């Protein structure tokens, strides 16, 4: 147990940027969920068992008549399909973590994946405990934010119009950060170009899924060349 306490203390400073982001977008999700008439316990349960960020934002719109179960599954899969590649790139690293590897795969959000790939593990900390601490603390921030937002949305009436833009803003920040830090910007260009082309072809209401399919296809086909250009897979 002492090893875990030490790992959590060492990992916490690295998770502070995620803490500040997840609290606010978690609060936004909680407010949106409360507006649908759901108890804060449901928001907490969803953040514990689903924990999909943009997938949870999207799911808020699923609780309306006319949305089929098949549509829910397909949309959720497409929005979070990138997580498949996250997990594949970390299989070797998680293999020795025993039963904890299942939670580590489950907890791979964009921000957690970024930390696991870029953070140098301190020499006096067990690597497996350190990575586990990062993952579980990040999810706790999201859960806490969801509960706060849900309670606030229930107890404090206010105009929440536009609050769903919080997740979009977070992805814009992530995009800008990657654009500024990486030498190989081809993946970012592919994403923007594919979205623009699909927007022109399918229109604003229907371009998201075709864009994601096209992006995944182009990245998959060009994976080897991208890695040679500097986009190394996380190890």
Keywords:
74% helix, 235 residues, mainly alpha
Question: What this model shows, in words?
Answer:
The protein has 235 residues and is mainly alpha-helical. It folds into 2 domains: 2-164, no CATH class; 182-235, no CATH class. 74% of the residues lie in helices and 0% in strands. The protein has 13 helices and no strands. It has helices at residues 2-35, 40-49, 54-60, 69-79, 82-89, 91-94, 100-106, 110-118, 127-155, 165-181, 186-202, 208-221, 223-228. The model has no long low-confidence stretch (mean pLDDT 83). This is AzlC family ABC transporter permease. It is found in: Cell membrane. Its main location: membrane.
What's this entry about, in short?
The protein has 235 residues and is an all-alpha fold. It is 74% helix and 0% strand.
**Count of helical segments?**
13
- Catalogue the unreliable spans: none
The whole-angstrom Rg is 19 Å
When the domains are counted, the total is 2
Q: Please report the total strand number as a whole number.
A: 0
Helix content: over 70%
> What structural class should be given to the helix and strand makeup?
mainly alpha
Series of H and E elements: HHHHHHHHHHHHH
Span between termini: 27 Å
Largest sheet: none
On the 0 to 100 scale, the average pLDDT is: 83
The portion of residues forming beta strands comes to under 5%
């Amino acid at each position: 147990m002492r090893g875990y306490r030490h790992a959590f203390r060492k990992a916490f400073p690295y998770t502070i940027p995620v803490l500040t982001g997840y609290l606010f977008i978690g609060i936004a999700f909680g407010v949106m969920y409360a507006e649908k008439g759901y108890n804060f316990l449901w928001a907490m349960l969803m953040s514990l068992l689903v924990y999909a960020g943009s997938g949870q934002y999207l799911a808020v719109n699923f609780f309306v008549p006319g949305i089929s179960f098949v549509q829910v599954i397909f949309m959720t899969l497409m929005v979070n399909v990138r997580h498949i590649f996250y997990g594949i790139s970390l299989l070797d690293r998680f293999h020795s973590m025993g039963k904890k590897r299942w939670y580590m795969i489950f907890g791979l959000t964009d921000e957690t994946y970024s930390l696991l790939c870029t953070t140098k593990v301190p020499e006096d900390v067990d690597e497996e405990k350190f990575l586990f601490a990062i993952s579980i603390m990040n999810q706790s921030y999201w859960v806490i934010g969801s509960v706060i937002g849900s309670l606030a949305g229930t107890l404090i009436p206010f105009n929440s119009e536009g609050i769903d833009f919080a997740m979009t803003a977070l992805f814009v920040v992530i995009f800008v950060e990657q654009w500024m830090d990486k030498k190989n910007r081809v993946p970012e260009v592919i994403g923007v170009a594919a979205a623009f082309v699909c927007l022109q072809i399918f229109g604003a209401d229907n371009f998201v899924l075709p864009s994601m399919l096209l992006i995944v296809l182009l990245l998959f086909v060009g994976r080897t060349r991208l890695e040679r250009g500097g986009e190394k897979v996380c190890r």
